[in-house]
Design goal:
Elements lengths: L7 H10 L5 H14 L7 H14 L3 E5 L5 H8 L6 E6 L2 H13 L6 E5 L2 H10 L6 E6 L6 H11 E10 L15 H14 L4 E6 L5 E6 L1
Parallel strand pairs: 1-2, 1-4, 2-3, 4-5
Antiparallel strand pairs: 5-7, 6-7
Helix pairs in contact: 2-5, 6-7
The structure holds S-adenosylmethionine (SAM) and calcium ion.
């Protein structure tokens, strides 16, 4: 067999082995659904990917684009030393209020600097204020229409050898179905096509969660 078939049984097996979430993270996931009615955060097995990645690359400066209620930022902040800083961008005061509550509860709030506003503007402000080539890692997980712009700005902010992770690039598999067309699918397809052929980076499409691109800035 050339490819693995991800049926429910295999997915459950993988999820069971790729889950280190504790009670605080379980509480955050449950409370998020109660308060927002949405499940927009990365999955526990994606969280485990980040724990492993962060243990490898030991970043000092991380950029997160798309905070929501703080699940991914809490996982990241708990996986880095005390002097690592996360610049966390989101436009929603309501959702990030829940994030702030959990950052305090997890005793990681000193590692995270929240930038409320349109992330396109926040990234331009970072570029204009001496942050070019200073970040070790970026995680892009906000509105899909702006992904290309977020990538280009994050690329400028990243050090050579730095990593960009982009979430939801398989968009429930729709990117591979020529009959499915909408603005999000088109934006994701164009970005996947561009990065597969971009000489500035090495990138890999990983079938974890809803699909993640793992990119190295050369
Ligand atoms: N990374 C989070 C996690 O895994 O826990 C989930 C992020 S959620 C999928 C996307 C977030 O992007 C939402 O919280 C939304 O408010 C934010 N967002 C949408 N458009 C934005 C924009 N233009 N600028 C900044 N944030 C935006
Ligand atoms: Ca996502």
């Amino acid at each position: 067999m050339k490819y693995l078939k991800f049926d429910d049984q295999l997915n459950q097996y993988i999820s069971k082995h790729n889950n280190q979430d504790d009670d605080l993270l379980k509480e955050l996931r449950e409370l998020t659904y109660q308060k927002t009615g949405r499940r927009m955060m990365i999955s526990p097995d994606q969280a485990q990917f980040f724990r492993t990645l962060l243990a490898l690359i030991k970043p000092k400066k991380i950029l997160e684009i798309g905070v929501f209620t703080g699940y991914s930022s809490t996982v990241m902040a708990r996986s880095v030393p005390d002097d690592t800083r996360i610049v966390a961008c989101d436009i929603s005061e309501e959702w990030t209020a829940i994030a702030k509550e959990f950052w305090i509860k997890a005793n990681i709030d000193h590692k995270i600097s929240l930038r409320l506003g349109n992330a396109n503007q926040t990234l331009s402000d970072l570029i204009d204020s001496d942050n070019i080539s200073t970040f070790d890692m970026a995680f892009i997980d906000a509105d899909k229409i702006s992904y290309d712009s977020y990538f280009e700005k994050a690329y400028q902010l990243l050090k050579p050898g730095g990593t960009i992770i982009i979430d939801n690039v398989l968009w429930k598999g729709t990117v591979a179905d020529p009959e499915r067309i909408d603005d999000d699918i088109t934006a994701l397809r164009q970005l996947n096509d561009k990065l597969a052929a971009d000489p500035r980076v090495q990138s890999t499409l990983l079938p974890i969660g809803d699909g993640m691109l793992m990119i190295a800035k050369l």
